[in-house]
Automatic annotation (TrEMBL):
<keyword id="KW-0378">Hydrolase</keyword>
<keyword id="KW-0063">Aspartyl esterase</keyword>
<dbReference type="InterPro" id="IPR000070">
    <property type="entry name" value="Pectinesterase_cat"/>
</dbReference>
<dbReference type="InterPro" id="IPR006501">
    <property type="entry name" value="Pectinesterase_inhib_dom"/>
</dbReference>
<protein>
    <recommendedName>
        <fullName>Pectinesterase inhibitor domain-containing protein</fullName>
    </recommendedName>
</protein>
<dbReference type="Pfam" id="PF01095">
    <property type="entry name" value="Pectinesterase"/>
</dbReference>
<comment type="similarity">
    <text>In the N-terminal section; belongs to the PMEI family.</text>
</comment>
<keyword id="KW-0732">Signal</keyword>
<dbReference type="InterPro" id="IPR012334">
    <property type="entry name" value="Pectin_lyas_fold"/>
</dbReference>
<dbReference type="GO" id="GO:0042545">
    <property type="term" value="P:cell wall modification"/>
</dbReference>
<dbReference type="GO" id="GO:0004857">
    <property type="term" value="F:enzyme inhibitor activity"/>
</dbReference>
<dbReference type="GO" id="GO:0030599">
    <property type="term" value="F:pectinesterase activity"/>
</dbReference>
<feature type="signal peptide">
    <location>
        <begin position="1"/>
        <end position="21"/>
    </location>
</feature>
<comment type="similarity">
    <text>In the C-terminal section; belongs to the pectinesterase family.</text>
</comment>
<keyword id="KW-0961">Cell wall biogenesis/degradation</keyword>
<feature type="domain" description="Pectinesterase inhibitor">
    <location>
        <begin position="41"/>
        <end position="193"/>
    </location>
</feature>
<comment type="pathway">
    <text>Glycan metabolism; pectin degradation; 2-dehydro-3-deoxy-D-gluconate from pectin: step 1/5.</text>
</comment>
Length: 380
């Protein structure tokens, strides 16, 4: 039995491509210690821990001190990486504060910088929360909190990129980008690392052993901060309209934009002029833009090619645009633009991943908001 489990564990680890030093002791016996039945001790070393990271050298440098400790666990590594990331974001906040822009000569960028400070402050707070959460969580129950953690880290990343995107003065933007590089790279790394930790923990069924006990003290976190990010910019040119422009930059960062049971139709007063500008369901603002329209009515003003490319980039090759069970003249997909490599109609099993229940864990928090909702497919 133990041998069999070990074999399947080994193959699972190979499948996810992450090799962690693992010592597992199974205590079989008394029925009352179901929760204790699997004790998992995961030691990590720096090569293994940094393997999923996009920016290897910053990952190694930032974990220098914890790497010196031979008995450091995966949790120690994770805490250290969150701590360093937070420190770097504080440094980028200092860079922003050191470069004020005169409100008289450049009110637009003055305002952008003020917003930027606020965003970075949020990022610092969110990272501090993440740090405390990981600190308070036993490693064996971390698997249960990973999606929360990914949401927070995703928000930390978004705050930094919103800050940079809001500034339009090129030389200032460049300075800021340089000043923030270390912070954004470390945040990017943290997201990829946590996403892999989740895979490993799930492979070990670590999360499922504790789900019942940890649910009791699950904190209500409120709205995930990335929720939902429909086109935040006024239209940049007036050749066309897009309903969405998702800005997901990291494949393993959670989030995206989902429309379910919506009516995508023109306002009454715009109805006569609805064909004057071409209208599209979305345009990929960043490489992993993720957008789903499902169980919705799409009006005749949506162009048959459906989706618009982002000029000057090739994000149509990497973005994730899907449709499922839409109706109305705009929902005919025969002439959707074939350049969107991943585009397709989902089947119901795939579509279920984008429902309120699965995509935003709505069952855990929406009831506290008083907002009406349904969790799955086929609601009204
Ligand atoms: C090394 O890691 C272990 C395991 O987390 C910890 O108990 C110990 O205090 C650490 N040693 C140092 C010097 O930080
Ligand atoms: C910047 O100047 C504008 C007027 O040009 C004023 O309305 C605004 O309050 C000023 N903002 C700050 C932060 O001083
Ligand atoms: C994890 O749980 C599933 C379903 O409960 C089971 O089929 C699988 O064998 C378990 N994996 C391990 C590694 O114990
Ligand atoms: C489809 O996308 C390509 C870019 O890959 C673009 O050149 C082409 O104009 C698009 N076709 C339509 C009909 O929009």
């Amino acid at each position: 039995m133990v041998g069999k489990i070990m074999v399947s564990l080994v193959s699972l680890i190979l499948v996810v491509g992450v090799v962690l030093g693992v010592a597992i002791a199974l205590h079989k016996g008394s029925k009352d210690d179901a929760e204790q039945s699997t004790k998992v001790q995961m030691k990590a070393n720096i090569e293994e821990f940094c393997k999923p990271a996009e920016f290897q050298i910053p990952c190694f440098k930032s974990l220098d001190s914890v790497a010196k400790n031979d008995s450091a666990t995966m949790k120690d590594y994770l805490l250290a990486s969150l701590k360093v990331t937070g420190d770097e974001i504080k440094k980028s906040l200092e860079v922003v504060e050191k470069n004020p822009i005169d409100n008289k000569t450049d009110p637009y960028n003055h305002m952008a910088v003020e917003d930027c400070k606020e965003l970075l402050q949020y990022a610092v707070e969110e990272l501090q929360d993440s740090y405390s959460m990981v600190g308070d969580t036993e490693l064996h129950s971390l698997g249960d909190r990973v999606s929360e953690l990914l949401n927070w880290l995703g928000a930390v990343y978004s705050y930094q990129s919103m800050c940079l995107d809001s500034i339009d003065k090129p030389e200032y933007k460049q300075d800021l980008e340089n000043g923030m590089r270390s912070a954004t790279q470390l945040t990017h790394n943290a997201i990829n690392i946590v996403a892999k930790i989740s895979t490993v923990l799930q492979a070990f069924n670590v999360s499922s052993t504790i789900t019942t006990s940890s649910n009791n003290h699950r904190r209500l976190l409120g709205y995930p901060t990335w929720f939902p990010v429909a086109d935040p910019r006024k239209p940049l040119d007036n050749q066309f309209n897009t309903i969405t422009a998702d800005g997901k930059e990291i494949a393993s960062k959670p989030g995206g934009v989902v429309f379910q049971n919506c009516r995508i139709v023109p306002e009454m007063e715009l109805f006569p002029v609805r064909f004057q500008l071409a209208s599209y369901l979305g345009r990929p603002w960043k490489p992993y833009a993720t957008t789903v329209f499902m169980e919705s009515e799409l009006g005749d003003f949506i162009r048959p090619e459906g989706w618009m490319i982002w000029q000057g980039a090739s994000f149509e090759q990497t973005c994730h645009y899907y449709e499922f069970a839409n109706r109305g003249p705009g929902a005919i997909i025969n002439n959707r633009n074939k350049s969107f490599r991943n585009f397709r109609l989902l089947n119901p099993i795939e579509a279920a991943k984008y429902t309120v229940d699965r995509f935003i864990n709505g069952n855990d928090w929406l009831r506290y908001t008083g907002a009406p909702y349904y969790l799955g497919l086929g609601g009204r």
